[in-house]
Please model this.
Amino acid sequence: MQVKVLSTRFDIPDAHKIEVAKEHGAYSTLEKVFSMQPEEVIELVKASGLRGRGGAGFPTGLKWSFLPKNIDKPVYLAVNSDESEPATFKDRYILVRDPHMLIEGIIICCYAIKSHAAYIYIRGEYTTQAKALQAAIDEAYAAGYLGDTIAGKDFQLDVTVHRGAGAYVCGEETALLESIEGRKGQPRSKPPFPAVEGLYGCPTIINNVQSIGSLPFILANGPEAYKAYGTEKSPGTHLFGISGLVKKPGMYELPLGLPILEVIEKVAGGVRDGRTLKGVIPGGSSTPVLTPEEAKTVTLDYESMAAHKTMFGSGGIVVLDDTVDMVKLVENLISFYHHESCGQCTPCREGLGWMLKIVKKIVRGEGSTTDIDLLVELCDNIEMKTVCVLSAACTMSTRSYLNKFRHEFEAYVKSNASTQTAM
Amino acid sequence: MAEKVKLFVNGQEVEVESGKNLIDAIGAVGIEIPHLCYHPALGADGNCRMCLVGIEDGRPPLVPACKTKAVEGMKVQLDTDKIKKIQHDIMELELINHPIDCPICDQAGECKLQDYYMGYDGQKSRMTVPPVVKSKNMDFGCGVVHDQERCVLCARCVRFTRLITKTGELGIVNRTDDARVNIFPGRPLANRYALNVVDLCPVGAMTSQDFRFKQRAWFLTKSKSICHGCSKGCNIYVDHNREKYKDDIIYRFRPRLNQVVNGYFMCDQGRMTYKLENENRLQTAQLSGIDAGLNETIEATRRALSQSVKTVILISPNCSLEQMHTLQKFAASCNGCVSGYSDGYMKTGDGDDFLIQDDKSANRAAFALLGIDSSKSGFMDSVKGADLLVSFQNDLSRSLSAAEIEKLHGEMKFVAVGSYVDGFTEKASITLPVASYSEDTGTIINSDTILQRYEVAVIKNNPILDLIHVVNLLGGEIKDCKEAWADLAAHIVPLSNIDLEHIPSEGLALTDNEVSNVAA
Model:
């Protein structure tokens, strides 16, 4: 089931070094890219059907075409490498094992959107990754792939690595821009959208590492080759991080559209012997949980996830078996989002703390059914009332556990102890 | 006139100004959209989420009104169950960690949280878990006291120090419900407008060290006036109260909106001049430092005037136009020389490019209009050979050195007609108290030649006579302020067409019409 589109060079020793990477095809698309008009590159990416790999799945080429025409301001590219969603560990592979694929992608993107400055916003905890990335960028400058000319062509591009300071919310694209600008990472109200008014008030495109990393393959092999993988509406491949209670957790590149249970069984080895599947988080902690029954019909693509009222998210699949205490899982979940709330909007700032205290009360065995109902109501009251979707990330997922595993919450309320072990 | 657009609020068509956001546009026709973080002087921040409104057929259908411009044909929904529920929910969330200490909170009575709770929430607390505990009674400097538990993190104060004073002393530190407004360690508020954050704060998180615990807001009478702290003439509210068995006392000045003169703000120094109206006032008529009856003192002054060989009438740059004119006529009638010498009221270099002016008097611009000489040489010429100096509210000790005053004192008799005990009244052999501006009415011209009128704000238990009345008793022909203005209008061309009853609320700019006509 595994394929090698993005991960072609992942297993080649020293592929993070430019000479090894070049030997295996890195930067080979640039000749072709510079022979095209920027608009043609955008059309080609549109034709590939590539969708943003940050979680929302917005078509990448379409996003680029939202840039205002005939503007006298510089255009910026911000590469979102703030991979912070719990259970997500895909971009870090690109950063460490094949950073030149990312740099090549950045060159392609910047040429297409006529940008001469790209910022890679990398999460603060990624120290190894930031070092590896910076080393690769230094190599690219030395080899003439970045700087005043690119591969001898008259195109100037500078790439800057900007390290975050540890806030989850900086993965939200406008908070990311605020952070690059040196301010506190707090999402901006939209409109204006970044494509019109982004970094330093200039038009800005923000793309995920994996989206940008997908560009060299698309340019090298054409949109049809890319669309050969995946489904019609979700073409291509994805780096899936499978974690949780499976035999073989890890990062696997798979085409989109595969049945989720088959992937868990065949790729990740299934749940441990003697255990049964209790639920699946399909794409990072913020995506609503699936019951085993629901998971039977789910395939790993955007449209199937939407049809099952969950989200594809970041491809971070978490497998939960019958040892998992869903109430404690929700406590852990709310605890994370509460801690990461930027504190800007009232509902998220005050509400998530309240939710956390209520769920802790339930875990302590002091809760009542009123508390469970209040939690459900608070999810409704907080969701979508805020500048960004961080609060929704918490409430959408929390609500799914409250609805699908309500009996576990009620068990806590009735008898004040759980027989199940914590995750 | 601004362009108008028609839109619908709750299905009803209203005409509003275009280009404004929904809070201001719809608010101007009397429909309230609740909001905490938005302030017209600080712009939209969009963090409180209290102003979320529905837009029928809109994309998105739910928008913050503070960040949404009024557009022709827009269908704004404020009274739908969905919007009412959102307002209710936001209020509930604002209050879960709030201490609800209204009985001991200075903001009570003028608090947005109280108003909105009554208007949009009104339900019992569902909080069954302990609230977040935060710091209280924090000294932020400049007389500003902060209570983090009452704070709703609207960031108005933070934005004020960044956008208006550009000093940036305040910030919001930490995330989530650990977020707190704070100063940076060891760097308290240090700007001359800091107390405006107390007015800006929609809740009781920012209180004034000076005003704290002195009065409940609902007992205060809010009278309109003009600050006399400098020549800017900031529009103010005089908040005062007459407690049982006590006199009418002023407890604070607050800025009053005047887009042309001072906007929403005033300086701290001007704000604190309310104390001068309460304390250290000249209360009783005195002859040679001994309390005497008013009639007796008036008689003594009349006698001094009639016996004088040469009289100098010294006018204060704080006197109103009417008072100045009355004094000019009075001086003419008793052959006195007039001077407005008051160099001591100038503090060169003290002003800034916002509100504070070098000139610490309220009506110096009138000197030029009425032809009153205020030069030191003019004053020195006047006092040559004079044997009587009558000062009307002008503290000469601010302009002359002690030695100079002493020299003059040796040469002539000092009479002080004033409102405050000052360096000059202490030297005067006759002192006559008159009402100060907060107890009087008058017209003044500020440093931008904007004519403004102030009315009586405070009526004392034993009202002190106003200056024009006192001058009348001394033999002046003008009886009251009204008569003074009528006479002024008849003699001073730039003032001839002004209808005092109908001066616009933002004042009347003289530069544009009258004054320039005179020059031509």
